[in-house]
Write a structure and sequence with these properties.
The chain is mainly beta. The chain is built from no helices and 9 strands. It has one domain. The two termini are 16 Å apart.
Length: 99
């Protein structure tokens, strides 16, 4: 089973209210700008189910694909990371690797 580093990010202030809040990302917080301020948790390792693959260099950003090569997005639900798989129209919970 493949693992992936996921960052829990939070945007505290932003020019547009829709950018505020918590979210999960495959990249760390990109740094504060005059338009946005926030932070990330440093990232944690999560298990990626076998039918999903991480592509680290798709359009210069990492993405997760399902077995049909459809991009699956990360969502923040009940403080946990979930993948939205549009092919099965369902959320897949990702579990943290415990050391």
């Amino acid at each position: 089973m493949q693992t992936v580093i996921i960052f829990r990010c939070e945007c505290f202030s932003a020019k547009f209210p829709s950018q505020l809040g918590k979210f999960f990302s495959l990249v760390p917080w990109s740094g504060n700008t005059p338009d946005k301020t926030g932070r990330d948790d440093g990232g944690h390792e999560y298990y990626l189910p076998d039918v999903y693959k991480l592509n680290k260099e798709f359009d210069y950003f990492p993405v997760i694909f399902n077995s049909n090569l459809t991009i699956c997005n990360l969502y923040y639900l009940n403080s946990n990371p979930f993948l939205w798989d549009p092919d099965i129209f369902d959320f897949i919970r990702l579990f943290r690797v415990l050391l």
